[in-house]
Design a protein that fits this description.
Distance between the termini: 40 Å
Strand content: over 45%
Structural class: mainly beta
Low-confidence stretches: none
Radius of gyration: 14 Å
Largest sheet: 7 strands, mixed
Helix content: under 10%
Length: about 120
């Protein structure tokens, strides 16, 4: 059973930084892609950033230049470095991972990031 466990969320002032981590366990295969989505109160879940096993990345326009995704494939861990945080970044951040296009996508339970203005 694959499990994704996020950590690193919390309360930070606008302009500050946080680093989220997501450790995946239970898979005998490496993950094709790993990434992050977020869901703000009253809004739909949206993509933040993803990275495939080859290192290619995709970011939401709203976080480009401020957030950086990285992976440690040996540890099946994905990180999200968030700088210059804004109040509108306040959301529950969910880790996601997928072994291949034909296998289920896995999600973590989320970690809350609150940015005070």
């Amino acid at each position: 059973q694959v499990q994704l466990v996020e950590s690193g969320g919390g309360l930070v002032q606008a302009g500050g930084s946080l680093r989220l981590s997501c450790a995946a366990s239970g898979s005998t295969f490496s993950f094709w892609f790993m990434g992050w989505n977020r869901q703000a109160p009253g809004k739909q879940r949206e993509l933040v950033a993803i990275m495939n096993s080859g290192g290619s990345t995709n970011y939401a326009d709203s976080v480009k230049g401020r957030f950086t995704i990285s992976r440690d494939n040996a540890k099946n861990t994905v990180y999200l470095q968030m700088n210059s945080l804004k109040a509108e970044d306040t959301a529950v951040y969910y880790c996601r991972a997928r072994v291949s296009a034909t296998t289920p996508e896995y999600w973590g339970n989320g970690t809350l990031v609150t940015v005070s203005s």
